[in-house]
Amino acid sequence: MTIRSAPAPLTLEDLHQAVADGAINTVVVAITDHLGRLQGKRLAASTFIADVAPADVEGCDYLLAVDVENAPQAGYAFSSWETGYGDLLFRPDLATLRVAPWLERTAIVQADILLPTQEPARVSPRQILRDQITKLATLGYAAHLSTELEFLLFEESYERAWDRHYAELTPAGRYNIDYSLLATSRVEPLISAIRTGMADAGLIVESSKGECHRGQHEITFRYRDALRACDDHVIYKNGAREIAAAHGQSLTFMAKFDQDEGNSCHIHFSLTTLDGTPVSAGTGAHGFSPVLDRMLAGQLATLAELTYFFAPTINSYKRFVEGSFAPTSIGWGIDNRTCAYRVVGHGGGLHVENRVGGGDVNPYLAAAALIAGAIHGLTTDIPLPDPVEGNAYLAARTGSSSLGALPGSLAEARTLLDRSALARAAFGDDVVDHYVHTADLELAAHAATVTDWERRRGFERL
Quick check: 449 and 455 in contact, CB under 8 A? Predict the structure, then answer.
């Protein structure tokens, strides 16, 4: 079997014609920031064709040094008040040019981030992934993946949800709708709009289904090369919100919205040769090839110190609850959903599923971590541990296996990343320091926040 990339949804020539015909009048130039969000500018399509397609768009370098509130933050080496917050260059990757059917007469193109010197911005998530892809290619391999991203759907609009402080929202489903056709048919107009919109934007939609939490859904897409799969992920995540807003509803990808099941982002990952030939199946134990053995061993060995790249927020770690289908320990199993890594498929489709990430994951950073782990395994002699048989939660809790625990908090993951010689060798000190500082800011913001829980406990009774 040979893997072939899907064609680009929109060529530059197509765009010229669409603009001439009046079908497109706006081009969104988008980057992905360090928090995994699409940011950018809307350009008149005629301006994009005349000025941008052969050149760049400019944007403030604080875009890679802000918090969730978009407030500039001190302490970043990359960008600060001391450096004057100058401009970055957004260089459109025309291979990502596509229509955004859910927006009127609009196309969107994703961009790489460059410094004014024309050098890549190394702390940019897309560049971090590009660097790992290049390193992997020197070993003769290419990475392919798909992401399974869950969300919770609510009947209130985003404005109404904000006004209610995101409390007492009405889920678009009153009970567990996992695999339910009856219950999901009630919200099919919106879910269908998302599926159709993404398909028309060039993503290859596979399926949608209800999930365990009230109002929870998942839409899955066909695997692609790692960079394009991550590009698709952020387009889908942003577009799904825009489509929900157009329907007067809201959805969230929060890793853990409440005490019930969280939103996961399982990542299905495999390697091929550079010509697209799968390399996972073989004659070894479990039908594995030596490449799969070493790749998986490397990903397991590096998971603890790279967990931050799968779980980047305070909220991320609240998913890791025993019996929740989110992992709590570091282990793998054959088609075992209690493990951090689940191996599924057969023949050319044999691959690993990383189950650590939540809906808040930055896909470029997660993919880069998976590739770094794979490279570590391919270039060292790490034995693959035995698979977990049965309940990984029970095995970890009772000490009946050698499973290590996943970091239990952002603070722990931040420290492991900061001290990781492997991460610093793989990504560079500047990249690791940038994201350690991002974690520090998240921790500080959380520590300074007084919550409703504290007020309920302490206002009168303490």
Answer: no
Write out pLDDT tens, residues 85-142: 999 999 999 999 999 999 999 999 999 999 999 999 999 999 999 999 999 999 999 9
Unique residue bearing structure tokens 């949800």: 161
CB contact set of 117 (below 8 Å; sequence gap of 6+): none
The predicted model scores a pTM of 0.95
Q: Residue 177's pLDDT is what?
A: 86
What is the distance between the alpha carbons of residues 404 and 417, in angstroms, rounded to a whole number? 16
How distant, in Å, are the alpha carbons of 75, 411, 438, 446 from that of 72? 10, 22, 12, 17
Work out whether strand 332-334 and strand 341-344 pair parallel, antiparallel, or are unpaired.
Answer: parallel
Asked whether the predicted pLDDT for residue 1 surpasses 60, the reply is no
- How would you class 298 by CB atoms within 10 Å of its CB: exposed for 0-12, middle for 13-18, buried for 19 or more? buried
- Taking only the tens place, the pLDDT of each residue in 412-449 is 999 999 999 999 999 999 999 999 999 999 999 999 99
List of residues 6+ apart from 268 with CB closer than 8 A = 145, 146, 147, 148, 223, 344, 351, 352, 353
The pLDDT value given to residue 369: 98
Residue 403 reports pLDDT greater than 80: no
Amino acid letter, residue 328: T
Q: Cβ(179)–Cβ(209) under 8 Å?
A: yes
CA 45, 50, 56, 62 dihedral sign is: negative
Which secondary structure element, helix H or strand E, spans residue 202, and what is its range? Answer: none
Quick one: tokens of 154? 């609510």
**Interatomic CA distance for residues 427 and 424, integer angstroms:** 5
Tokens of 415: 């420290």
Provide the phi-psi class of 57: left if phi over 0, else alpha when psi is between -120 and 50, else beta: beta
> 455: which 2 tokens?
């007020």
What does the angle CA 441 – CA 443 – CA 448 come to, to the nearest 5 degrees?
95
Q: Which two tokens stand for residue 322?
A: 């025993």
Pick from 136, 170, 173: which is nearest to 156 by CA? 170
DSSP conformation letters of 418-450: HT-HHHHHHH-HHHHHHHHHHHHHHHHHHHTPP
CA-based nearest residue to 363, from 271, 238, 252: 238
DSSP label of 81: T
